[in-house]
Amino acid sequence: MIEVLNLGAGVQSSAVLLMSVEGVLPKLDHAVFADTGWEPAAVYRQLEWLESRAEEAEIKVHRVQLGNIREDDMSGEMRGKKWLSVPYFTLNTETGAKGQIRRQCTSNYKIKVIEKFMRRNIMGLKPRQRAPKTAQVNQWFGISFEERARMRTPTADWSMHFYPLVDMKWDRVTCHQWMKAKGYPDAPRSACIGCPYRSNREWREMKEQRPDEWADAVEFDEAMRCKGGTTGDLFLHSSCVPLSEANLWTDQDKNQMRLWDDECSGMCGM
Q: What domains sit in the chain, N to C, each tagged with a CATH number?
């Protein structure tokens, strides 16, 4: 059995990889990071550090990529085939009705990319070649105990799913405490810069502490609204006002949907 981790470089999957490096968990063969091309700088720094630690334990870390999600949505390149990937909030300017576009980014830029890499590069299958009917890959996910509702049964015969943090009953706080006790750097939350699933606290933190990323998100928000869509005007903020004008000081966490506490690592949160 080939042991493979879906690596998001956030707290949970970082802890899982490091526990494998230290022998707390079984030895991984591979860790696969699906890069959307629009991750925060802190995620890329964490990934580079994890790569160096994994190399010491002879665990191969792979970066795979479909494209750049920001550029794809800005150019409309993906629209003819897959429509918009980012789950924008929408406002019908005629009726005032609010909604949200179906989220496809995790499937398009994470899940499918990792599965394709595992089939071709890890299992050595050719395009359209039938996969074995028995499990070949034990696919690990950094889903913590409080997120266990996100656990999924594999749809392919060649894959098994393993949730070590759920088995250990570790939540995100426990992962963080373990990493801190080991002297490891604090891992960031892994999500695209323009991910709509952010609380006001997270938008404020970006604006105050990472102004370059905030400016990037604001520019993207404006550009996509100008393009519009069949469902109405598009927004990154759930209030359906321009991100640059959104009130970030309200207790919005109660109505701002969050699909994961820490990272987007290739497992649908729905």
A: 2-254 (3.40.50)
Tokens 């394709």 — which residue?
Answer: 116
Angle, to 10 degrees, between the axis of helix 172-181 and the axis of helix 11-22?
Answer: 50
What DSSP element (H or E) covers 115? Answer: helix 112-117
The model's pTM: 0.88
Which of the 8 DSSP states describes residue 109?
I
Compute the Cα dihedral for 22, 23, 27, 32 and give only its sign.
negative
Per-residue pLDDT of the chain (270 residues; tens, 9 = 90+): 999 999 999 999 999 999 999 999 999 999 999 999 999 999 999 999 999 999 999 999 999 999 999 998 888 654 444 455 788 999 988 888 999 988 888 888 999 999 999 999 999 999 889 988 898 999 999 999 999 999 999 988 999 999 999 999 999 999 999 999 999 999 998 899 999 999 999 999 999 999 999 999 999 999 987 765 556 789 999 999 999 999 998 865 444 444 444 456 555 432
